[in-house]
């Protein structure tokens, strides 16, 4: 932990209300802006979380009891870091490296990756007639990323079942319709089914599922190609712990920020 | 453990400084154990506890200030929210409404406030609670005053 003791934040008149000492690594609650040491207030947040069986998304300020949803720290004038309260809980679903790279995909341009896999050939050569045994696992990961929930069984079964029955129907019909018609039909069916869950992310999701199917690759190989396209390294299995956690926060923060700016435009 | 010790030491220094300011509360730390404290508090004016001096015992947990201190009356007191035999206190801030921003000093102030404003709906002393709930203010006050005189005032020569 880098516990920077900035001397500028040392204020003998207003000590940290928890340790009663000088404030170390200034941190503020996001609603009431009461000030604490970062360690003190996060310890309290963790302690409160262990006292409740249900996950809490807010923390009552020890001073004014107002509900706060994050701890703001590391302010240097230009930027700050943010620690969301519900992320403290051990029982909350945490995103793995692979999840995080998928999340990042949804915020990057899809142009480069589209050139890697020839989607039209997939429809022309009727490769969809071969069942894709990796699709279910791929869908599970994708839905966990998009919903930020661990238990996505229902959506997985729903979409997977839809894709399978679509392909089976096409198998019976054989080549009655053109590849383009098949492609359009597939996209419409999937996006209708997915829209209630993913709203404005639906279109991108439909493109992603089509890309995965067209790639004909298993998840590992597909990830490798995709990461190369994004200019990222493959998820490093050795990096664990605090560092991973830190990155999660950043990606998720980015996620919220992005939505905000969308609304503002 | 280290954090609680450091924090209690800060409180100790603060208490030394505040002694003059708040004469209603006298907090004393045990000579050999910083986790054991006693306090003498004055019964609030215009209550049946006026004129009495009540002794409290604090047992501070190692997780303090994440966990609240355990406080009980050593002096016998007739109050709906204090157990008549054990001196145990029913006060939300000593249980689920605890916040680490409370100090031993401010807990004393909260207890003084509780003495002035009993909560008969969560009684630890049913006799006292029933008197108040049935509207027998005079009965409650005379009982409380009697025990204050018996237990919380210096014996008359």
Automatic annotation (TrEMBL), chain A:
<dbReference type="InterPro" id="IPR017907">
    <property type="entry name" value="Znf_RING_CS"/>
</dbReference>
<dbReference type="GO" id="GO:0008270">
    <property type="term" value="F:zinc ion binding"/>
</dbReference>
<dbReference type="InterPro" id="IPR018957">
    <property type="entry name" value="Znf_C3HC4_RING-type"/>
</dbReference>
<dbReference type="Pfam" id="PF00097">
    <property type="entry name" value="zf-C3HC4"/>
</dbReference>
<dbReference type="InterPro" id="IPR013083">
    <property type="entry name" value="Znf_RING/FYVE/PHD"/>
</dbReference>
<feature type="domain" description="RING-type">
    <location>
        <begin position="16"/>
        <end position="65"/>
    </location>
</feature>
<dbReference type="InterPro" id="IPR001841">
    <property type="entry name" value="Znf_RING"/>
</dbReference>
<protein>
    <recommendedName>
        <fullName>RING-type domain-containing protein</fullName>
    </recommendedName>
</protein>
<keyword id="KW-0863">Zinc-finger</keyword>
<keyword id="KW-0862">Zinc</keyword>
<keyword id="KW-0479">Metal-binding</keyword>
From TrEMBL, chain B:
<dbReference type="InterPro" id="IPR050113">
    <property type="entry name" value="Ub_conjugating_enzyme"/>
</dbReference>
<dbReference type="InterPro" id="IPR016135">
    <property type="entry name" value="UBQ-conjugating_enzyme/RWD"/>
</dbReference>
<comment type="similarity">
    <text>Belongs to the ubiquitin-conjugating enzyme family.</text>
</comment>
<dbReference type="GO" id="GO:0005634">
    <property type="term" value="C:nucleus"/>
</dbReference>
<keyword id="KW-0808">Transferase</keyword>
<dbReference type="Pfam" id="PF00179">
    <property type="entry name" value="UQ_con"/>
</dbReference>
<protein>
    <recommendedName>
        <fullName>E2 ubiquitin-conjugating enzyme</fullName>
        <ecNumber>2.3.2.23</ecNumber>
    </recommendedName>
</protein>
<dbReference type="GO" id="GO:0007031">
    <property type="term" value="P:peroxisome organization"/>
</dbReference>
<keyword id="KW-0962">Peroxisome biogenesis</keyword>
<keyword id="KW-0067">ATP-binding</keyword>
<dbReference type="GO" id="GO:0000209">
    <property type="term" value="P:protein polyubiquitination"/>
</dbReference>
<dbReference type="GO" id="GO:0061631">
    <property type="term" value="F:ubiquitin conjugating enzyme activity"/>
</dbReference>
<feature type="active site" description="Glycyl thioester intermediate">
    <location>
        <position position="90"/>
    </location>
</feature>
<keyword id="KW-0547">Nucleotide-binding</keyword>
<dbReference type="InterPro" id="IPR000608">
    <property type="entry name" value="UBC"/>
</dbReference>
<feature type="domain" description="UBC core">
    <location>
        <begin position="3"/>
        <end position="153"/>
    </location>
</feature>
<keyword id="KW-0833">Ubl conjugation pathway</keyword>
<dbReference type="GO" id="GO:0005524">
    <property type="term" value="F:ATP binding"/>
</dbReference>
<dbReference type="InterPro" id="IPR023313">
    <property type="entry name" value="UBQ-conjugating_AS"/>
</dbReference>
């Amino acid at each position: 932990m880098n516990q920077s003791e900035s001397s500028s934040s040392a204020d003998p008149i207003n000590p940290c209300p928890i340790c009663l000492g000088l404030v170390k690594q200034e941190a503020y609650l996001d609603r009431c802006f009461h000030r604490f040491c970062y360690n003190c207030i996060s310890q309290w947040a963790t302690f409160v979380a262990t006292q409740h069986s249900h996950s809490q998304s807010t923390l009552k300020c020890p001073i004014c009891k107002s509900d706060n949803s994050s701890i703001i720290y590391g302010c240097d004038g230009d930027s700050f870091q943010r620690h969301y309260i519900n992320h403290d809980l051990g029982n909350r679903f945490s995103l793995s490296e692979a999840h995080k790279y998928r999340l990042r995909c949804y915020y990057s341009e899809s142009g480069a990756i589209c050139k890697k896999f020839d989607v039209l050939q997939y429809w022309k050569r009727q490769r969809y007639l071969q069942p894709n045994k990796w699709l279910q696992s791929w869908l599970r990961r994708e839905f966990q990323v998009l919903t930020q929930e661990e238990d996505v069984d229902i959506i997985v079964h729903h979409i997977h079942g839809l894709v399978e029955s679509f392909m089976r129907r096409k198998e019976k019909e054989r080549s009655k319709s053109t590849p383009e018609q098949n492609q359009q039909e597939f996209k419409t069916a999937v996006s209708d089914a997915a829209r209630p869950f993913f709203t404005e992310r639906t279109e991108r999701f439909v493109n992603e599922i089509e890309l995965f199917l067209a790639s004909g690759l298993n998840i590992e190989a597909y990830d490798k190609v995709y990461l190369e396209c994004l200019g990222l390294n493959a998820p490093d299995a050795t990096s664990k712990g605090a560092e991973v956690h830190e990155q999660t926060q950043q990606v998720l923060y980015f996620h919220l920020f992005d939505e905000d700016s969308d609304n503002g435009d | 453990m280290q954090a609680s010790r450091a924090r209690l030491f800060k409180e100790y220094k603060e208490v030394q400084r505040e002694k003059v300011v708040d004469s209603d509360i006298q907090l004393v730390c045990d000579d050999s154990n910083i986790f054991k404290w006693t306090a003498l508090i004055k019964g609030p004016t215009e209550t049946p506890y006026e004129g009495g001096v009540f002794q409290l015992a604090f047992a501070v947990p190692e997780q303090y200030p994440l966990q609240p201190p355990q406080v009980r009356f050593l002096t016998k007191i007739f109050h709906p929210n204090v157990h008549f035999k054990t001196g145990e206190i029913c006060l939300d801030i000593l249980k689920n409404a605890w916040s680490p921003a409370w100090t031993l000093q401010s807990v004393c102030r909260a207890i003084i406030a509780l003495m002035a404003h009993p909560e008969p709906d969560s009684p630890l002393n049913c006799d006292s609670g029933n008197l108040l709930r049935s509207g027998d203010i005079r009965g409650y006050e005379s009982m409380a005053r009697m025990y204050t005189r018996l237990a919380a005032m210096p014996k008359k020569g």
